[in-house]
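Objective 1b of the project was to move from sequence-level analysis to a structural picture of ligand recognition. The entry below was assembled by the postdoctoral researcher (A.K.) and checked by the PI before modelling. It contains the amino acid sequence of the target and the SMILES of the bound compound, pyridoxal-5'-phosphate.
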Amino acid sequence: MTGEREVIADGDSRAQAFLDGVGLRPVYPTPESRQALEGFDESLPRHGLGDQATIKLLDDLGSPGTVATNGGRYFGFVVGASLPVAAAAERLLLAWDNGAAAYVTGPSAAAIEKVAARWMLEILDLPSESAVGFTTSASTGTLIALIAARRTLLGRLGWDLDRRGTSGAPDIRIVTSDVAHISVTKAVRVLGFGLENVATVPSDEFGRLDASKLPAIDDHTIVVLQSGEVNTGESDPFRDVIAAAQAVGAWVHVDGAFGLWARASKHRAETDGVDAADSWTVDGHKWLNTPYDSAMVITRRSEDLVAAMQSDSPYAPSSPDAQKNLSLDFSRRARGVAIWAALRSLGRDGVAELIERTVDLAAVVADGLRDAGYSVLNRVVLNQVLFASDDDEGTLRILHAVQDSGKFWFGQTLWRGKVALRISVSSWRTTRDDVDQLIVMLALLRQSDS
Ligand SMILES: Cc1ncc(COP(=O)(O)O)c(C=O)c1O
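Corresponding predicted holo structure:
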């Protein structure tokens, strides 16, 4: 077996070589590279095949089979790259190998995540008394928030959920918009609310929940709003809906996977009134450009989250703000450290600059697409550009030509019954030149397609 130092240095130098060349890679792996992934399909070896040979295979076959999301020309989903400081922090965490359940398992992690939590509330301007659980994804954040919401509402109705379970409990109804993210539907299904107990509110032409069509809500209701609709980037009318919900004792959760970051920039008016909600989820791995497994669930009343996620035991007592009492995991990576590193390195100004620069680039893309004769279907209030060519077939031809080129990548969606294309500018690496080249390619494709 090779020594630890050599193996880790080998991994590091391969990682560096990958990063050095990420801008030159096809943005989506070639058919040959994808075919070569079959090379991983070995039988489980009886005798170990060695550290360096294993890392070599991972790099030789795996690296060419990756999507260049860590480069500047990937515009798919709402995917950011990794800030170097956040990636470096993750590498140090790997060396520490501390479980970050609580102070006892990793004092450094506990201290840093506490600071990261405070800074997150400051930069998003959410109530300072809120609790922040660092979790894997916005999907998990919404799941945890709905767990806390149901437990709290039922408690107020005199039902002890922990003791009595859901059977026979008062019905809790979910109210959300018809363009809520699929992670909301998933959380509703997984938690056993029942899709029949969801009241779906129509959205307006921009993709915002239409507050005038809100059904009757009461203290048995969880209203799920969103900041950053996945196609248009729009946010729901928080001020009106939250005031109506608060008046009757409903719970309001906000899925702000990417849109909440607008609050850290001059675009904060997009999220006007969102700070009055009861809970929020937001990702680091989208717009803050931290590596994956980076998200947060936040509740206004910390006791709601702590009571729902409580996992103290005689062998593992801890403080209420231990991360195992704020999220689903017990053993866990110190996910908040990469967020801390990104916030410390960028500062408030750097985060604002990242958000504002990518919003500006999205506006440049939208202008270029209009000039090239495409229909831009959204107002481009944040970093999302939704557009189409003349008909569904033409739109798909453009999409496939871009994807097959290996020069750029973005995806498709259905918007108001028609195929549309989504460009998301979320990466710190994306430059004006990347965006100009994208526009040139799309303009040429449209010319040759018409
Ligand atoms: C609005 C919205 N909510 C939730 C999610 C899910 O986030 P995650 O991938 O972190 O689970 C996304 C991801 O695209 C999103 O855009």
